[in-house]
Design a protein that fits this description.
- The chain is of the alpha+beta class.
- It folds into three domains: 191 residues, Heat Shock Protein 90 (2-Layer Sandwich); 124 residues, Ribosomal Protein S5, domain 2 (2-Layer Sandwich); 224 residues, 2-Layer Sandwich (Ribosomal Protein S8, Chain: A, domain 1).
- An eight-stranded mixed sheet has the order 5-4-3-6-2-1-7-8. It has a five-stranded mixed sheet with strand order 9-10-13-11-12.
Length: 606
């Protein structure tokens, strides 16, 4: 027999491994502690955060509290008051039922617990450091429980190093907080970050809770949804189609007051909105399902938010019909009039005008037998095609070249010093055609202009030359608390680009934009940059400025399909080719392609 190589892990190591599943980041701790407070019957829950949860996460509740024995037992793995037999898993109504949350949290932090039941005169104080109880004593505290988690991952440096910025971690905490706050409007919730009150939510109904979190204006954007069957009850609110956004913002499903994610049910809602919203737009919804627990399977993994229904297709159908009915009931769906003939509609601006007799332009000098195109003032298209079929091949090739602009791997280096005076014309209101050094150039007008503007915005920012337009009427941005915090972190970069912002406790006003020449949908622009910087990245000042410049350039550039005058074409080409590099757009797509004489002749001689 050889030496045994399999050993039992020490308890503190096992706890740290378990903590890796339960505690992924500070938001995981907030979720677990808030759920425990809810299960304890609290009517008021206060969450205090410092430095995005890296320094402190404290949850205080006025629930039932724990006696000394329960307080000690709560620190053990798989200690729970919710489950005594396997069947209990299929009738779960509470949140924290796994019995490993606190054990996992204390394994990777310095934790202080203060708790007292109604019956006790004195409560219990316990201090734990990495699963080890270092102090326990009676203490005078109010009824309920206060758990303070400090120095998260102090004993797992690798995990602590991978925590994101304070703003990113706070966004995740914010998400967990509002999910629980929305599911329990009858409970008072407070969220405080670095001594600043983020939310102070009084006891209310569901609509008022939504309004308290997302602002008063959301109320006018929602319509109620309600459907009740023997199998399931659905209620809540969905957004009016005209307020659908590009980002997935306020989209919430709750099953028996538990937040879930469900692409399947999301598809049901999107199907109900078909024909009412633009492609890639996302409506808001706050939908609550109430169902007998025996019909659902709660995934008991601590970090999952999935729930399976025993009859998913029925839930899908009921939800889709409920949303469609709601939108139709509030006159949001288009009505169908089979007698109406839309082709007979007269545009409003033409209703008061008298009809005009159509005119036909005829060229009196046109000679159908004329074969000298140089001398003829006009000629028939059919004759032209008959005599010069090869030009079709040439233009066909030019279309091919234009299509190459959609590819990013065509590397055609070119040393250009284009000056005003070269012939250039616009083609299909999309491309600019010009020649240089016996080469034909096909230039994508939008991408070319995007690059010019991108470089100009960056140059102005770096040199401090602000081209700014003050807004007569400042524009208010409707943002959530974490989005306001995020904007504050790169306010300096926005100012360098020419924006001016005014921050108050509950709103942000845009008072100036970079230039009077740009056409900017300000709410849409800020929605996009918030979406971009909400990702789990910590961008440098340079990256932030580059991304803002890209968005400004894309928003402000000449668009495909826009007709250009000759002077605009000349200016665009001159500005493009005086740049140090002009091969690729800010989004790394080819700006132009070229053809030489041989390539054209090869096509004509096929």
């Amino acid at each position: 027999m050889g030496t045994s190589v399999i050993k039992l892990l020490p308890e503190h190591i096992a706890n740290q491994i378990a903590a890796g599943e339960v505690v992924q980041r500070p938001a995981s701790v907030v979720k677990e502690l808030m759920e425990n407070a809810l299960d304890a019957g609290a009517s008021e829950i206060k969450v205090l955060i410092k430095d995005g949860g890296k320094t402190l996460i404290q949850v205080i509740d006025n629930g039932s509290g724990m006696n000394e024995t329960d307080a000690r037992m709560s620190l053990e793995r798989h200690a729970t008051s919710k489950i005594s037999k396997a069947d209990d898993l299929f009738a779960i109504q509470t949140k924290g039922f796994r019995g490993e949350a606190l054990a996992s949290i204390v394994a990777v932090s310095h934790t202080e617990i203060k708790t007292k039941t109604t019956e006790q005169e004195l409560g219990t104080y316990i201090r734990v450091e990495g699963s080890k109880i270092v102090k326990q004593e009676p203490v005078a505290v109010p009824k309920g429980t206060s758990i303070a988690v400090k120095n998260l991952f102090f004993n797992i440096p690798a995990r602590r190093k991978f925590l994101k910025s304070i703003q990113v971690e706070m966004k995740h905490i914010h998400d967990e907080f509002i999910r629980l706050a929305l599911a329990h409007p009858q409970i008072k919730f407070t969220l405080i970050h670095n001594d600043n009150i983020v939310y102070q939510l009084p006891e209310s109904g569901i609509l008022q809770r939504i309004t308290n979190i997302f602002g008063n204006k959301i109320k006018e954007k929602l319509v109620p949804v309600k459907e009740e069957t023997n199998y399931i009850r659905i209620h809540g609110f969905v957004g009016k189609p005209e307020f659908a956004k590009l980002k997935r913002g306020e989209q919430f499903f709750f099953v028996n007051k538990r937040f879930i994610k469900s692409p399947y049910l999301n598809h049901a809602i999107m199907t109900a909105y078909e024909g009412l919203i633009k492609e890639k737009a996302h409506p808001s919804y706050f939908v609550f399902f109430e169902i007998d627990p025996k019909h659902i399977d709660v995934n008991i993994h601590p970090t999952k938010t999935e729930i399976k229904f025993d009859d998913e297709s029925t839930v899908y159908s009921i939800l889709k019909v409920a949303v469609k009915h709601s939108l139709g009931q509030f006159n949001l769906s288009p009505s169908m009039d089979f007698e109406h003939k839309p082709d007979l509609d007269i545009p409003y601006e033409m209703q008061k005008q008298s009809p005009k007799t159509p005119t036909i332009d005829v060229n009196p000098d046109f000679n159908p037998f004329e074969t000298d195109f140089d001398n003829a003032k006009d000629f028939s298209i059919g004759h032209f095609k008959k005599e010069s079929q090869k030009w079709d091949d040439f233009f066909s090739k030019t279309h091919e070249i234009a299509s190459q602009l959609e590819q990013e791997n065509t590397n055609i280096p070119l040393d250009l010093n284009w000056e005003q005076g070269y012939e250039a014309f616009q083609w299909l209101n999309k491309f600019i055609i010009t020649t240089f050094q016996e080469k034909l150039l096909v230039i994508h007008q939008q991408r070319a202009h995007e690059l010019i503007l991108y470089k100009q915005f960056l140059k102005n920012a770096n040199e401090g030359h602000l081209l700014q337009q003050k807004l007569i009427f400042p524009i208010e941005l409707e943002l959530q608390a974490h989005e306001m915090d995020l904007l504050k972190t790169f306010e300096n970069e926005l100012v360098a680009m020419g924006f001016e912002l005014e921050f108050s406790e509950d709103q942000i006003l845009v008072t100036a934009i970079p230039s009077s020449d740009i056409k900017l949908n300000i709410p849409d622009f800020f929605e996009k940059i918030i979406k971009l910087f909400s990702m789990n990245i910590e961008p440098s000042k340079e990256i932030i400025q580059e991304e803002i410049a890209k968005m400004l350039a894309k928003t402000s550039a000449i668009k495909t399909g826009q007709k250009l005058e000759k002077n605009s074409i000349d200016t665009l080409l001159k500005d493009l080719f005086k740049l140090e590099s002009f091969l690729f757009s800010p989004n790394n797509k080819r700006i132009f392609v070229q053809m030489n004489e041989n390539e054209i002749l090869n096509q004509l001689n096929k």
